[in-house]
Amino acid sequence: MNYSKLFWLGIVQIHGLQPHRDSQYSSSERQINRSNIFMKNKKKIIISNRLPIHIERKKEKLIITPSAGGLATGLNSAFDHNEILWVGWPGIVPKDDNEKFKIIELLKPMNLLPVFLSKEEIRNFYEGYSNEVLWPICHYQPSYIHFDREYWTTYVTVNKKFCEAALSIQQLSDFIWVQDYQLMLLPQLLRQEKQDLNIGYFHHIPFPSEELFMNIPQRKELIEGLLGADLVGFHTFADSQNFLNACKKILHVPAGHNQLKYKDRHIFIESFPMGIDFDKFVQTSTLPNVNAIADQFRSHFPDQKIIISVDRLDYSKGILERLRAFLTFLEKYPEWHTKVVLYMLIVPSRDKVSQYKKLKDEINRKVSEINSIYGNLSWTPVLYFYKSLPFEELIGLYVASDICMVTSTRDGMNLVSKEYMACKTMSSGVLILSEFAGASKELVDALIINPFNRSETADSIYQALKMPPEEIRERIDANIQIIQKFNVQHWVQLFLTRLAETKAIQRDEWARRISDKVLQSIAERYQRSHNRLFFLDYDGTLVKFQNHAQKASPTVLLYNLLDSIISDPLNTLVIISGRSQESLSSWFDGRSYYLVAEHGIWSNFPNFNWSYKKGLALHWMPEVKKLMEKLADQTPGAYIETKPYSLAWHYRKVELGLGELKAAELKEILSPMLHDYGLQLLDGNAVIEVKNTEVNKGKAALEIAGHIKADFLLAIGDDVTDEDLFKYLPHSTISIKVGNNKSAAKYYLDQQEDVLQFLNQLIIK
Question: 311, 402, 411, 537: which one is catalytic?
Fold first, then answer.
């Protein structure tokens, strides 16, 4: 029997199957060599806390049913099931080794690799650290956090178990895709074992602001864990930015709007809103038996509008906020008494945990309160059911209802909102959607509410009840257009396409990195040449950045290196910098190398006497300086550097985030002036500099290169201002960027210290 085929079609029931070895064999003989379990062509590895199945034990039988979750559905739709190998907990604790062996053998044909956990591990890892630390933090409920040292120890242990299981697979080729917050350490654990793995991670719940995330004692370890991935995905742009900010705050790593660099790797951080299996919901909603269910359901409320809500039992779903808003609605709009009913379906979840048990009790009391105040023999305002429904019954409920309320106080996505809309192709309904649910960023034609504002939510209920049919249809169609396009299959393909692109970018970056082989090639060119010209930037290239600019003075080691370069009569050295002429002059005057200051305005080439580029207009400076001063006055730590022919607004000492915000504001303010005054804005490393367009490092370097006629040209820089240097010089120039950001340079070195090492090795070789 092909169990794999049966599983993916719908349901598998295995009755009393025996292990391949009889009980006469010892347990040690029954140990599984996982490396031989799967065929070599298994290339797409999915790792999640749970396998996409349910296992139920009935006497001597193990009954296995597939999960109806969106992830399993999406992956099954996107790939042939033979391409996928899924690693996860099977949802059951085996009674003994025999049952463990049986489960492994049953799941093997389904391409499922189980990771077995003890009851203690489940309690500390899943119920403990995952749901008593990470879940409340990520859902902005820090008061619900319960720290326990054993929780963290077990969380680490279980993540290592998952790592061991994944690495036991004989061939890990295309990618490994790690799912969700229970496995935040796993990407880095995998990376430590195999550097060349292609790893994606998706965070299915919200990611909190960095201030809130900082409350977790193990914040650094968790962040580092995720940065083992090549691509880290979130449902919303806001979540991705929160994560980037946390990385910058905790690890002090350079980061852009969608990427950061960590341990010599560029990691991309992006949003991928998850969708649903749109066609499945549409097709099911039109089935005759489903419409019969809908008709039967509606027959119970012939003269009433039906408001539904479908949630797991969780404090993040805003269930109490919904009930309070409904109570307010009944108070504000008495004309709707007996004409509307709130039908709440709450799926059981963790109700033995004290917080959830308390929540369940509070829901019961609130429902009773509303019904006791407004209910009568013929009308019960709130109908509350604590159970789950079969799929077709749930769809029937969607079809029959007039309004769906989603009042999450924080939600990564909330697929119920999308499911409800997908079931409205042939019927009518209004979606009331919390602004704190990720889906609100897509379903903008829903009635968007703040669930904490009871009056606003009550008014939205009234608006939905009174909405004209044409407007309802218009909103449905607009939302359906989004849901249909950004379905779960689209989500899978979008993420995996971006993961492949990320690896390609990383490979390209690695090819640009100056390896020993590349250094040897450059050194050979150096030795063969007869006339060499060096262009070296100063800050961030020859010296490290300092909070106080004047502290970045040359060291004895730097002087010795520069003197060593120039000691060879074949070498000409130019330090080309944005620094003022006064600074460079004070440090380097009297030495046998040339200096270019303020991006080319000042130069001591060719006779070591300083001169400046004449004819530069300066009438713009007072106005620009006034604007810069205004922003500096609003930004503690910002200051203005006034040079004879340029102005620089520095924010290196400004609080993280504030500096970037004010810099963006300054650029926006200055933008209209650039063309009018013939100015160039240089967006550098924690500095915004404004100067005349006639001057840049590239033009200055090209002029010098035209006189020297070198057969070996080397240019090294670290900032945006150095891009002109790389672009203007001849194609034969060996151009090197410090840091592997996008650049016109041919090669890159990881950090400033590598520049000095590279130059030493070059001239020694």
Answer: 537
